[in-house]
């Protein structure tokens, strides 16, 4: 008699396909045409251009799709603009009810959506049915909650306006939900473009919006390829762009939006490490790998595509993995027993194939299962590369297919080094039974999400997004909401130009009475402050600092590229140590600066008055406010650590606030002391090392602080100061690949230049587009906006128990 286990082994596999008929009938009823949804109606594309969307499992067309052009995008933006005011005024509760209705409609149509997604994308029905669609509903429910709570939780914030959203083909409906739900919750309206390969579920969702009674124009969907995407990106009527897709297109979008004032979030590629220690539950880890790289055909931005395994268990792991790969089923994605479906398109299949061939040419060892894939669609077998050099193309480039590359390590340090040996930083997965080791690695790997003994966990309550060239901005959780709001004061704020035009300029007439008498000697030329030492400017040029009436009151060094290079090097060297210093320690140093600097109140107030001519009282007031800021950020240093996210499962999901690294700050001219402190203090309080360029016009207040820093235990290199031209130095800093983020408070043109120059390493930018900020105002000149810009969020998922 055969045992039950043997019966299972020998059991014949019989296909169990989900019927496509209802979904095909649904398409048939709509004339097999996918139309844009604009102002609550489906419209025909103005230019009459179309293309086909194909089923990747059969290579046959499913429907023809409108290629939207200028007229369509204009109409969609107009509709979104027209609807936005009323949508916001509806209030949080009203918007919550609409989002709730959308969630309900998604659930009621779950099977249709799942089948349409599988037909259009080629992913297994098991995944669309059990993962994509339920997560879509969950996202709308969760954000209905944020809409409800917005007035209470974000009282000082208002919507950005009209959001342009561009999404990829790998999770068509889920990415739509990630984009639309938070935007709507915060009172924005949207123009969304699905990927050209996968427009069907967005089309179906548009109908749900109509059926659910969403006001016309709140959600607009335009279909088309990259050209349509570009029209959205460049449209002057759009206030924010949210993009998920390739790093290449992300870079183009950064460039195109630079200087336009559009808010931007980018969720780009990845090459995520999957680290297995020798004490890990290896069978669990093998199943983890299956989920990490063969889920969704490996077409996942956070796929665990690099297996980094400890030497002693590597061969065991590989052989178990090969045995498991042999049992994976590739084929008709409608079949409920299929593990891996079809690759999206021939172009992607060719890309995978080309990279795999390159892997072999570069000397890695290839293994694929013995069976072959079906030939009537675009399929690719699960693939394992071993003996991969860390520098090999396949170890560095995002393949976006079912291809795993494996390499080994001996010590935890080596594992961290390999894990971080990438320009990306989207996610990481760590496998060990040692909680100490797991959390140590979680802290040291540079990635927006870290999964411990688990992988590819997603939830609306947890933010998702990248470090480094994986992009910036988060989707999900409270941190994701910031992408769709702006401070209330800013929404009504005037730009510098508006102020000048209205004669409201800060520049004041000369005031002889205010001209100080007891001034420091003119021959004292302030040097740079680099690595805790005063440094002579490289070019040995200096620039004059003039007081009211053009009176020379001092000189500072004219910083150049070399000075910046030195300062960035010093900051980088200091950054890791400073990041590790305890929050308590950081707070102590900030208090100490405040104390030492407060003791020099009179002297610094006189200096301010000499430069700006604003009077000694105004100088004292500025010093007092600067001391107040130092106290505030000292207070926050140990109180802005993150949150625990309420994701489902038995697990802790910690949203940890981490420093960004090396932060460049270009200070404005106004309030030369206060603005310097108000920017540098939050940056260092959150653990960054800083290269600051003080006020170009009145830098002396900052250079007077060198001794204060020296006597306040600020570690060398944590604060570096280079004086000179704001825009020249900003250009160098923005283009510097060792600078991780840049804040620029200058002109509109300068802001644009900073954003454009930042594309090299896709550093985070925070610019003011020439908006005059009142630095004395507690809302504009301090607070959470500053803290948020000084950190990046890492979500660590730690499941426990059974
Ligand atoms: P893509 O980045 O070109 O497409 C993503 C979206 O951007 C689509 O909706 C597309 O129409 C739109 N788009 C394209 N060019 C645009 C432009 N100039 N301006 C505005 N929007 C534009 O990605 P694609 O071509 O589908 O795939 C190329 C490679 O990118 C893949 O082989 C894969 O490696 C990677 N990729 C990564 C994704 C991720 O989530 N990390 C998602 C999709 C692709």
Itemize the secondary structure elements and their pairings.
Layout: H1 4-10, H2 21-29, E1 33-34, E2 37-38, E3 41-42, E4 50-55, E5 60-66, H3 70-89, H4 91-108, H5 110-121, H6 125-153, E6 157-159, E7 162-166, H7 172-185, E8 189-193, H8 200-211, E9 219-221, H9 226-234, E10 240-244, H10 247-257, E11 263-267, E12 272-276, H11 282-293, E13 304-310, H12 311-327, H13 346-361, E14 365-367, E15 383-386, H14 393-396, E16 403-409, H15 412-419, E17 427-431, H16 435-444, E18 449-452, E19 471-472, H17 477-481, E20 485-487, H18 488-491, H19 496-501, E21 525-526, E22 528-530, E23 533-535, E24 542-546, E25 552-557, H20 561-580, H21 583-598, H22 601-612, H23 616-637, E26 642-645, E27 651-659, E28 662-666, H24 674-685, E29 689-693, H25 700-703, H26 706-710, E30 719-721, H27 726-735, E31 741-744, H28 748-757, E32 764-767, H29 784-789, E33 791-799
Parallel strand pairs: 1-5, 7-8, 7-10, 8-9, 10-11, 12-13, 12-17, 13-16, 15-16, 17-18, 18-33, 21-25, 28-29, 28-31, 29-30, 31-32
Antiparallel strand pairs: 2-3, 4-5, 6-20, 11-19, 14-15, 22-23, 24-25, 26-27, 27-33
Helix pairs in contact: 4-6, 5-6, 5-8, 6-7, 10-28, 11-12, 21-23, 22-23, 23-24, 27-28
1,4-dihydronicotinamide adenine dinucleotide (NAI) binds at residues 166-170, 193, 195-196, 225-226, 229-230, 233, 244-246, 249, 252-253, 268-269, 301, 348, 351, 398, 400.
